[in-house]
Amino acid sequence: CTPNISWHGCDPVYSCAINPLDSKRLVTAGMRGSIYLWDIEWPTAQQPAITFVSSLTGA
């Protein structure tokens, strides 16, 4: 199952990375210079639960 990513206000997501030391953290970067931090929970089902944590927007 491949998750469909439609974050960043439906703008393209150019990059994403999972912290290799903590697989519950995801960072995404979008076309407007915005960076988003997410928490990932892996319940017993195969679909992860992803929760927005914080954002950082560049100029």
UniProtKB/TrEMBL annotation:
InterPro entries, A to Z: WD40/YVTN_repeat-like_dom_sf (IPR015943), WD40_repeat_dom_sf (IPR036322)
Protein name: Uncharacterized protein
Lineage: Eukaryota, Metazoa, Spiralia, Gnathifera, Rotifera
